[in-house]
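User:
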Amino acid sequence: MAPFVLPPYPYDRLDPIKAIAAAHDGGIVDLSIGTPGDPPPASVVAAMAEVTADAQGYPPSIGTPAYREAGAAWLNQLVGLDLGAGDVRATIGSKEFVAGLPAWLHLRRPDRDTVLFPAISYPSYAMGAELAGLRAVAVPVDADWRIDLSAIDPDDAARALCLWVCSPGNPAGALDDLGAAAAWGRSNDVPVFSDECYIEFTWSGPPRSILEHGLDGVVAVHSLSKRSNLAGGRAGLYAGDADLLHFISEVRKHAGFMPPGPTQRAAVAAFGDSAHVAAQRAIYEERLRLGRRLLMAAGADGCALPEGGFYLWAAAPDGDAWAFAEMLAERAGVLVSPGEFYGPQGAGHVRAALVRDTERLHLAASRLGVTLD
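Assistant: Predicted structure:
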């Protein structure tokens, strides 16, 4: 058997275009990756910096009681649930959970070998399957970029370890029918994992969680990276089905997955503060409007505001995303991600992460000779 060969990391492929954008006077306007550009709340930073005994000993892998209680209270308030600390476990952010999950689930169900995920989505869903030596099977999305559960092949469903959904979606910002996803999973005996890290940046209606449709057979995954600009702190949670939580948390405990003690303390402060999220929502709403004007002025064939999240999903002129990305770098110093990073169906689009301040967006517009006001 041939050894596994890792594909290039998607964003490393942008290095030549990044150099073009960085050559502008005033530098690059980097909208390629969803790394928060705004500071985390001062109270969260202060909690992390406080010197206490939790930096001395090993922190609990599942999260401290305070961490899990704060996470449960936050979700209860946000979407009207009745979770307790026992329904919640801690993660080191969410990417490690996404990438590691298939291998853990395969220990639980060695008779199954398939991970289902949206055809346009975060690359780590597929990579988690590949790193575990399993099948990564993309589920088609419809014309509105929502997962099409009716398109799942019954043979793939019979082999599935899990189905991933992401709502609000990355990269296209669509809102999936999470109730339908939960029902599909239960009828097919397939656990459904719902990546909800953009939940508080839902623009069309209220925030939604798959947990609103019952905990049986479903797990919601959340992160403080986007909500609280705490990507460097690496803190998140997963909540839902008791049996799944128990198995996954026991595997993680054996493997030594644990958010650092100071990070767990900071997370308690972050989960308990909704004011900073309201302020961040207003910031992203303004940037999305300005970013849309910028991309349309640069020649995008179309760019709708998303139903959720802080990304713009723009149709490239003539369907050539790489040419559009290079043109944006040359003319405006802007770096975006070609849509093929998120699946072959996205090849005619680019994704722009609105994580840079409005001053940088206005700078990019001035290079194009337009104003955004």
